[in-house]
Design goal:
- The structure is a homodimer.
- Chain A is about 15% helix and about 40% strand.
- Chain A has a single domain (about 15-190), classed as Pnp Oxidase, Chain A, CATH 2.30.110.
- Chain A contains four helices and 13 strands.
- Chain A has helices at about 55-65, 75-85, 90-95, 155-160, and strands at about 5, 15, 15-20, 30-35, 35-40, 45-50, 65-70, 100, 110, 115-125, 130-145, 165, 170-180.
Chain lengths: ~190, ~190
């Protein structure tokens, strides 16, 4: 018998992504989001939900662009700071000694020190409730050579992205390799 | 200097969620999705993107409901099978010896053996491209007592959800505790 926990955002895992935008004075701003995910393969898109009250919300509307900087273990404190401070009052990248770089593809900055970044053009805006969902088309993915693994794509064990637990509000790393997708399940095909 | 990997869904981590629906003959069906995430706090909502070609896509449109069953390490092979087979041809839960349970809140089944499930009513349908995004309002979250931790919410270390790496197509577990969110970043407040 399962216990009811009521209607709440108790789902796992959620990502930890740092969203890069330009502010009202064209200054580089970053904020942390966990209500996010991939939402389409063609065109390749991500969805990021932000409250209208945030500075980044207006920045995305105005510039029609944002970056996704994948939060990693070594930047956990910086990433957390990006989520508890506002770009209306502080220069978040400068406070943490991080370097914003202007994207050549979209009107948004990415963080040089973060090993994996996505440059996104705003494709759709979906009003849901407290959060507005921004659907961004991925125009390019850029990464540091050090995190490239097999198949010439990032290796999650080298990237070491953060995982967030809603409500209990904890960061975890990524753990052991469990198995290959589109492969482990083949044993059940014999049974049908 | 970052290397360009072109426009692709190379972002991390992505969740592994098993989506429960009723099929054309009211039979219980499940499929695995990784293009998904939380998208709103009030009302609490998740977004799940599926290709129109999938059986589950039509099931959600018809029943206006789905469940999210969080994939965990011990069911990795079953979850993978749910992603490489179609409910048009096989009874996936039965093939794996798993038990569908009819939700009392929405017109969709959940899997009894999975420790954490969400019952969702369809709120919005967003056409993006190859994928359709279904935004579901979370009507209830139900879980097994064994995975409850502090604060009376699920403990990610007890739940042991899967993490998926796109393109390289690998499953990983959740790793070490890194720190408390809304806390680790406070040290930077002193600097501003």
């Amino acid at each position: 018998m399962k216990k009811s926990l009521s209607a709440n955002t108790l789902v796992y895992p959620t990502p930890v992504w740092v969203i890069g935008t330009y502010g009202e004075k064209d200054e580089a701003n970053v904020m942390t989001a966990a209500w996010a995910g991939i939402c389409c393969s063609k065109p390749p898109c991500v969805a990021v939900s932000l409250r209208e009250a945030t500075y980044s919300h207006g920045n995305i509307i105005r510039n029609k662009a944002f970056t996704v900087n994948i939060a990693t273990e070594q930047y956990a404190a910086e990433v957390d700071y990006f989520g508890i401070s506002t770009g209306r009052k502080v220069d978040k990248p400068a406070t943490c000694g991080l370097t914003p770089v202007k994207s050549e593809l979209v009107a948004a900055p990415f963080i040089k020190e973060f090993p994996l970044i996505l440059e996104c053009g705003l494709l759709k805006v979906v009003e849901i409730g407290l959060h507005t969902q921004f659907i961004g088309e991925i125009m390019d993915v850029k990464c540091d050579e050090e995190i490239i693994g097999d198949q010439d794509v990032p290796d999650i064990e080298k990237l070491r992205p953060l995982v967030f637990s809603p409500v209990s509000r904890r960061y975890h790393g990524v753990g052991d390799f469990i198995g290959d997708a589109f492969s482990m399940g083949k044993k059940y095909r014999k049974k049908t």
